[in-house]
Write a structure and sequence with these properties.
The complex is a heterodimer. By secondary structure, chain A is an all-alpha fold. Helices cover 84% and strands 0% of the residues of chain A. Chain A has one domain: MetI-like (MetI-like fold), CATH 1.10.3720. Chain B has two domains: 269 residues, P-loop containing nucleotide triphosphate hydrolases (Rossmann fold), CATH 3.40.50; 112 residues, CBS-domain (Roll), CATH 3.10.580.10. In chain B, the strands form four sheets. Chain B has a six-stranded mixed sheet, sandwiched between helices. The chains are: A mainly alpha, B alpha/beta. The structure holds adenosine-5'-triphosphate and magnesium ion.
């Protein structure tokens, strides 16, 4: 029975497409590669030139200003713990990756979210794509990234950007859709152009939701950055994976704990930024 | 002067408004048209003229189309058919292009919203200058006008507070200030006080009247509250549940000569004598005298009009008192040169008095009384009979 079905060279076909893209869009990929590499390198070098204690102080200050004193204390304690575990450098690497990936994901994701809220056609195209993206296992993002960018930090960032982008798109669009009709009328009645309407009414009112999207993007970026350790993206992810492969549970757990600390700190800070109006009030 | 003229305005919500017109011709109701075509006829053949500097009130029950009507004026809603002409240039708002429309909204109109519509992420000052910011005004101008306007609505000191720190009444003052800050010719107010507590509402109504006296804006004021309508509006349009203007007129017109049963039931619960002003029943005097006249001329004047008394006014037409035919005869017999010494003091009614203010005076004085304005200029006279006639609801069409 099975013999009747002809063998279709699916794999061959896809590889051909990938090769075609690789050769014909080589300049594009090279450009992306160098932009990402430079960005990560820059952030990383800034973070490594600054003394540890300065960074800890800055983080504590931000945490204190945006969130609560408790978060500031937690930040100080956990960052000190990371230093004492000897994981500062890979932590900085991971943070650089996460920051750059989040930045790119939001720079692309927020405009896409605005577009999604504005255009029904675009929404109907992107909605199923987002659905698929959010059901795919995170490992599967590594494959195309590796195919186009080989291994290392750049494909790690690319995979992270794609994996972490959906919440930015979704929550930006949701926030804009939830802006009340009355607020739009206020803008229009005073003669706002559609650009003014977007910048002075819709985006500010959608900001809590947009910030929530960024928050979730950061969280997804953390989980992906660990997985990107598989393709040599460096940082805590690589340590965890190497530790697991060599049954060095101690180092794996310590690195894992560091990831958790970072995630908690960034989560608390960005969550509070989302409630920016309450902060202003008090 | 007419500021805004609305002619044959129709607003039909739905995907194919053309379907509704034949049924409108046949005078079908909104509900029937909706069932047959799916279109909602919100406004039906509206014709209104709004004068410069007046508070024009549009009143109607919920769903009558009031909000739709104001939104047609600044084209937040684009009407299906009709004309809205602006001022003396006869600009048809409905033909304005996109840029013209933006310009119109920026310069011509200021809108006040029922639920205030303040931007929660902006301070009070930033909210008030929102319109100026949209226009691209300079920072200094925004600050200056913003602070001035905030002061004008009595909120000085609150400039840097956030909206969630203010009470409802204060928030609507901000809403009003925001609309006034762009110095519009026309204020559009869609039930601006409906969300406020009764006491605050009365406060705000008085505030609006005060501001109006100072700034003389043209105000289109929407309300579903008849008491509010008669308090604020010189002229009122009543929308029925089909989106038809059933009557336009002064408060008194509407109370005394309701156009149909709908208006009659609408106004039946209002106590007329607290609303209708004495102005409404004031008649012209057939004769008035000056103090320098000599008695025999005065007697002739009275006899010519078959009067038994007359009011006396000075050269500015200000009321001095009254004088009766008997007094004049006495003065004549005594050989007085002028009638001045025979003038008797008399009570008077100010023209802003309501019927209930005037009635006790009229009853106790047992005679007609002169009606004067705030400067005591004589306007005419009022009689007890006329007041009672109005209160009985007979109208004045004798
Ligand atoms: N966007 C719309 N689509 C369809 N029908 C609408 C729309 N907006 C209003 N309507 C209908 O038009 C009619 C008039 O509505 P409108 O909001 O103008 O009434 P209103 O007099 O302001 O009422 P309220 O006192 O409740 O504010 C109503 O029957 C309403 O259901
Ligand atoms: Mg309404």
């Amino acid at each position: 029975m099975i013999d009747i079905i002809p063998k279709i060279p699916v794999g061959r076909f896809l590889v051909d497409i990938i090769n075609f893209l690789r050769t014909n869009l080589a300049i594009v990929f090279a450009a992306i590669r160098s932009i990402i590499a430079t960005a990560v390198e820059t952030v990383n070098s800034i973070l490594t030139t600054l003394p540890e204690f300065v960074i800890i102080a800055i983080v504590a200050l931000i945490a204190w200003k945006t969130a609560k004193i408790k978060v500031a204390i937690f930040s100080v304690v956990s960052l000190l713990l990371i230093i004492s575990m000897g994981l500062w450098r890979p932590t900085v690497e991971t943070v650089s990756l996460v920051l750059v990936a989040t930045l790119i994901a939001t720079i692309i994701g927020i405009p896409l979210g605005i577009l999604k809220a504005r255009s029904k056609t675009f929404a109907s195209i992107i909605e199923p794509i987002l659905d698929v993206m959010q059901t795919l296992p995170s490992l599967s993002y590594l494959i195309p990234a590796v195919l186009f960018f080989r291994i290392g930090i750049v494909p790690g960032v690319v995979a992270t950007v794609i994996f972490a982008m959906p919440p930015s798109i979704r929550l930006t669009s949701l926030g804009l859709e939830q802006v009340s009709k009355e607020m739009i009328e206020v803008g229009k009645s005073f003669g706002a152009t559609s650009k003014q309407l977007l910048l002075k009414i819709e985006v500010p009112l959608a900001l809590p939701s947009i910030m929530m999207g960024i928050n979730q993007t950061i969280m997804l970026a953390f989980s992906m950055v660990v997985i990107a350790g598989f393709i040599g993206a460096g940082g805590l992810g690589e340590i965890i994976i190497a530790g697991l492969q060599r049954y060095n549970l101690v180092i794996a757990i310590e690195a894992g704990l560091s990831v958790v600390f970072l995630a908690i700190i960034l989560d608390r800070i960005t969550k509070r930024l989302g409630q920016i109006y309450d902060v202003k009030k008090s | 002067m007419i500021e805004l003229k609305i002619s044959n305005l129709f607003m039909i919500f739905g995907d194919n408004p053309d379907l509704a017109f034949p049924l409108i011709e046949k005078d079908l109701k909104r509900k029937e048209i909706k069932e047959q075509t799916g279109q909602v006829v919100a406004l039906r053949d509206i014709n209104l003229e709004i004068k410069k500097g007046e508070i024009f009130v549009v009143m109607g029950l919920s769903g009558s189309g009031k909000s739709t009507l104001v939104r047609c004026i600044n084209r937040l809603i684009t009407p299906t058919k009709g004309e809205i002409m602006l001022g003396k240039d006869k600009n048809n708002i409905l033909e304005a292009k996109k840029e013209e429309l933006i310009e119109l909204r920026r310069k011509k109109f200021g809108m006040v919203f029922q639920r205030f519509g303040l931007l929660p992420h902006r301070t009070i000052l930033q909210n008030v200058i929102f319109g100026l910011e949209i226009q691209g005004a300079s920072k200094e101008k925004m600050k200056e006008i913003g602070e001035k306007t905030i002061k004008a609505v009595g909120l000085a000191g609150w400039e840097n507070s956030m909206p969630n720190e203010l009470s409802g009444g204060m928030l609507q003052r901000v809403g009003l200030a925001r609309a006034l800050a762009v110095e519009p010719d026309i204020l559009l107010m869609d039930e601006p006080f409906s969300a406020l507590d009764p006491l605050i509402r009365v406060n705000m109504q008085e505030e609006l009247l005060r501001i109006q006296r100072k700034m003389k804006k043209t105000i289109i004021f929407i309300t579903h509250d008849l008491d509010e309508a008669v308090k604020l509006g010189k002229r009122i349009a009543i929308l029925d549940e089909e989106g038809v203007v059933v009557q336009v007129g002064t408060v008194e017109d509407i109370l005394i000569n309701p156009a149909n049963d709908f208006v009659k039931t609408f106004v039946q619960n209002i106590d007329r004598h607290n609303v209708i002003k004495i102005d409404y029943i004031t008649r012209d005097n057939k004769v008035v005298l000056n103090p320098e006249m000599n008695p025999s001329d005065a007697i002739n004047k009275l006899k010519k009009t078959r009067s038994t008394y007359s009011f006396v006014v000075d050269q500015d037409h200000k009321l001095l008192g009254r004088i009766s035919l008997d007094d004049l005869a006495k003065a004549n017999a005594e050989g007085n040169k002028t009638i001045e010494s025979s003038i008797k003091q008399c009570k008077s009614i100010e023209n802003i008095a309501t019927l209930s203010d005037a009635l006790p005076l009229l009853i106790t004085s047992k005679t007609v009384l002169p009606v004067v304005d705030e400067d005591r200029v004589l306007l005419g006279y009022a009689s007890e009979k006329a007041v009672i006639k109005v209160l009985k609801g007979d109208g004045l069409n004798d």
